Fold this sequence. Notes:
By secondary structure, the protein is of the alpha+beta class. The chain contains 2 helices and 4 strands; from the N terminus they run ββαββα. The longest helix has 24 residues.
Amino acid sequence: xxxxxxxxxxxxxxxxxxxxxxxxxxxxxxxxxxxxxxxxxxxxxxxxxxxxxxxxxxxxxxxxxxxxxxxxxxxxxxxxxxxxxxxxxxxxxxxxxxxxxxxxxxx
Length: 107
């Protein structure tokens, strides 16, 4: 099983982390071949591979997906129940509701 990795790189003007697949191919190959901590220059790029970091992976996305589905189902249920149980009384509508004829008055 391949574990996704990120490289912690040092450049002449700063540091950053990057997926090796997002780097220019020649630079990534040179960094893989260089001994740890050695500066590499390929074309216009100069970099030093400081560390290789494993990207933590959630082993099973199902619990998060189930939680999201539960929240969505609850919101749908709540909206449906509110629509069935509430009755607006004439004259007591919210004053900002543009569907009401007197929507511009203030309390």
